[in-house]
Design the sequence.
C-alpha cells in the first residue's frame, strides 16, 4: 500500500470511521466478480461523456441521506478517504475534458459575471475501484482562466493531489450539497488559485 494512504487512514480513525459502521463496509465479494460484470447495477451517468446532458441543483443538507452526510461534509481529500473506505486506491478515468455550458449556480460559485460566463471548461471523471465506478466528478472553471490548462493536462492524475499538496490552492466558501438529474447525491466545493485569483468548482457525486 502507498505510505501516504496508510498514514492518512491511520490519522482519520475519528469521524467517518465512527459514523460509518456497517453502513460503509466494503462489499469485497461483489468486487471479486467485477470482471464478469464490471458495472453490476451501478449506472454511470450519460453526462460524463456528453457535458451537454449535465444538470444538477443545490440541495438542503437536511435532504441528504444520513449515510452520505459524512461524505458530503468531508473537509479532506475525497480520493484519500475513498482509498481508506475501499481498502485500495481509486483509479481515475477521464470521460471528457472540454468546453461546457455552465449552470447559473455554477457561474455564481465561480464568482463570474452571469452574462459573460455562460460557457466554461469542464473535466468529467470517474473514480473506479476494481473497474467499478464509485464516484463521478465534474470540475469546472471559466473559459480562458489560468485554471483551464491545469484541468486539460491532468490526464489520470487525481485533482485532489494538486489541490491538497500545492499551497497556492485554497478552498473558499461553504460546501454545497447537490442532487443531479440522475438522482445522485453530491456536493460542490470551490477552490481559488492564490496566484491568478481564478476559481475552480469541484462537483462530486456518489454512486454507493
Sequence:
Amino acid at each position: 500500500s502507498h505510505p501516504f494512504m496508510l498514514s492518512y487512514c491511520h490519522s482519520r480513525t475519528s469521524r467517518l470511521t465512527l459514523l460509518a459502521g456497517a453502513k460503509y463496509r466494503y462489499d469485497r465479494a461483489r468486487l471479486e466478480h467485477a470482471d464478469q460484470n464490471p458495472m453490476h447495477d451501478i449506472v454511470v451517468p450519460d453526462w460524463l461523456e456528453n457535458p451537454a446532458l449535465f444538470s444538477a441543483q443545490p440541495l438542503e443538507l437536511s435532504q441528504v441521506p444520513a449515510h452520505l452526510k459524512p461524505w458530503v461534509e468531508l473537509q479532506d481529500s475525497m480520493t484519500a478517504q475513498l482509498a481508506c473506505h475501499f481498502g485500495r486506491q481509486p483509479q481515475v478515468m477521464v470521460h471528457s475534458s472540454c468546453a461546457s455550458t455552465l449552470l447559473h449556480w455554477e457561474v455564481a460559485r465561480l464568482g463570474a459575471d452571469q452574462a459573460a460566463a455562460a460557457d466554461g471548461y469542464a473535466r468529467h471523471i470517474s473514480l473506479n475501484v476494481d473497474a467499478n465506478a464509485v464516484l463521478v466528478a465534474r470540475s469546472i472553471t471559466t473559459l480562458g482562466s489560468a485554471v483551464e490548462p491545469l484541468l486539460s493536462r491532468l490526464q489520470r492524475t487525481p485533482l485532489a493531489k494538486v489541490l491538497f499538496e500545492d499551497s497556492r490552492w485554497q478552498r473558499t466558501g461553504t460546501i454545497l450539497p447537490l442532487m443531479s438529474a440522475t438522482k445522485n447525491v453530491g456536493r460542490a466545493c470551490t477552490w481559488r488559485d492564490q496566484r491568478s485569483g481564478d476559481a475552480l468548482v469541484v462537483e462530486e457525486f456518489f454512486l454507493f
